[in-house]
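Troubleshooting log. The previous structure file for this entry was overwritten by mistake, so regenerating from the original sequence record. Sequence copied from the archived sheet and checked twice against the printout by T.R.
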Amino acid sequence: MAETVVLHNPRCSKSRQTCALLRERGIAFEERLYLEQPLSLEELRTLRDQLDAPPSAWLRSGEAAYASAGLSADSSEESLLQAIASQPILLQRPVVIHNGRARLGRPPEAVLELFV
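Regenerated output below.
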């Protein structure tokens, strides 16, 4: 795996901005189109640790898939992870992973703290 990975959705403006920001700074990275290559449940558990945040903080609760999965604010962490694994559209994007840590690119500049 590359040293830096961006969980990327090319249709998302924040995701495109984050990739552009990294390129402007000369940071090499691998793009993982997570809608085409969804993260496994194990990868999502690792991501939770790398983000140091519960899945509820990086879940897109406004997506139709959230309601159709029967999720709510009371859903367990494991239920949220399973939902993201089965419906990757629920993953907030972009996420940048670098040297065992990760940051959500909202705003895109937030990911730069991984490189200081």
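The first strand starts at residue 4 and ends at 8. Archived copy saved in two places this time.
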